[in-house]
Write a structure and sequence with these properties.
Number of helices: 16
Largest sheet: none
Order of helices and strands: HHHHHHHHHHHHHHHH
Distance between the termini: 26 Å
Number of strands: 0
Oligomer: single chain
Helix content: over 70%
Structural class: mainly alpha
Length: 403
């Protein structure tokens, strides 16, 4: 593993640091934002909009920012997004107006979209196919460390100082990420585009972009990602409800379970990414999906605390197994001039799954059937996703071979 890590370009590790720091800053705010808004006297409707605005920002802007990254370069999009994230996050501490805070939250989603699509495309641009899984694994590991550290740091700062302090600290972290991003070498994907499209009219360029985004391989990956994001959103929303109401788990118990999953993801991610390089993306992708299915099934059956904690650990490892293989697969089936557009299109498509899963399927199945129904839906969707991957396997393999 160490020899393989040495073969990665140093910018991947710089990008990993930036990803981990920005995720720490984001996760610092996530548990505090609704409570902070409640203290400011926001209504339940305004708090709901505050949480949802981030995801709508991601849905609306991942695709156009991905297209833009194909034309102006990845680093410019990443750096601008990090600077926007820093400014907006610090601004939370300076406003008490609900409408303004909702707008800031949506703009934070825009910043996250730009950084996500820019970094994912940059990794695939910079890294040869035989090491893409490992590169994505390094980034995923850093992100999961931020997922674990963020809530702890946010709670500590808010209790020791004030609710505004985590927002200011997260803004500073975002500024640090912006500075770090300036060290990342620029890669000019426009040269490849200029060779093939310099004289193409704007309308024809738009048609070419849309043709790439809705190609068979892109749509296949989009539907797979849509279902996975839906299942993950259902699990993250319903697992705390199910364990608290049926098993009488405390907030501390739930936090420990998710921390175990995060630790499993952070530790296993580089190894699973390298495994995807060695035995194939689709095999590791299916392995991750099977593991997520088992996690949902065990939690649904509720066999006891030890096995439940094991399920969270399995799901923690299964998540990077899927994502590392999936993002590497996007790199395998795309070329640099179109990579940002396709990555953004797939990302936006997947975010709709998150929104539908958490805001529609969970409340509808929970209230109309029972508290265990959302987890049953998670299990069924995971099975459907595995079936879809196996059905589309030959299509994706042919596209990889062409790439």
């Amino acid at each position: 593993m160490l020899k393989s890590l040495k073969k990665l370009h140093w910018s991947i590790f710089v990008l990993g640091i930036a990803s981990g720091v920005i995720m720490t800053g984001f996760m610092m705010l996530l548990p505090l934002l609704p409570e902070y808004a409640d203290q400011l006297g926001f209504s339940e409707y305004e708090i709901g909009l505050l949480v949802a605005a981030f995801f709508f920002g991601r849905v609306l802007f991942q695709f156009p920012l991905g297209v833009l990254s194909d034309y102006v370069g990845r680093r410019g999009i990443m750096s601008a997004s990090l600077l926007l994230f820093a400014a907006i996050t610090a601004a939370y501490a300076l406003t008490t107006d609900a409408i303004l805070m909702i707008i800031l939250r949506m703009m934070q989603g825009v910043a996250a979209s730009g950084f996500t699509v820019g970094s994912q495309s940059y990794i695939n641009d910079r890294t040869p196919a035989e090491f893409r899984g490992l590169a994505n694994g390094v980034i995923s590991s850093a992100i999961n460390i931020g997922v674990i550290a963020g809530p702890i740091l946010g709670a500590t700062l808010s209790q020791g100082f004030s609710y505004q302090t985590p927002f200011l600290v997260a803004g500073v972290l975002g500024a640090v990420c912006f500075v770090i991003s300036l060290a990342i070498p620029h890669m000019d994907v426009r040269q490849a585009r200029a060779k093939s499209g310099k004289l193409i009219p704007l309308r024809d360029r738009f048609r070419r972009i849309m043709s790439s985004a809705i190609s068979r391989s892109s749509l296949s990956l989009s539907f797979i990602h849509f279902l996975v994001m839906m299942a993950i959103a259902i699990f993250l929303t319903s697992a705390p409800i199910l364990t608290a109401e049926v098993l009488d788990w405390s907030k501390g118990d739930i936090a420990v379970a998710f921390a175990i999953g995060g630790a499993a993801a952070a530790i296993s991610s580089p190894f699973l990414g390298r495994l995807a390089d060695r035995i194939g993306r689709i095999r590791v992708l299916v392995l991750g999906l099977v593991t997520l299915f088992l996690e949902g099934l065990i939690v649904y059956l509720r066999p006891g605390t030890p096995l439940m904690l094991l399920a969270f650990a399995l799901g923690g490892a299964g998540t990077p197994a899927y994502f590392n293989a999936f993002y590497s697969l996007i790199g395998d089936v795309t070329s640099p001039p179109e990579r940002g557009a396709i990555t953004g299109f797939i990302g936006s498509f997947g975010e709709w799954g998150s929104i539908i899963g958490s805001s529609l399927l969970v409340p509808i199945t929970w209230r109309s059937i029972g508290v265990s129904a959302p987890m049953a839906a998670d299990v069924i969707i995971s099975l459907l996703t595995i079936a879809l991957v196996l059905l589309m396997k030959s299509v994706l393999q042919r596209q990889v071979a062409r790439g």
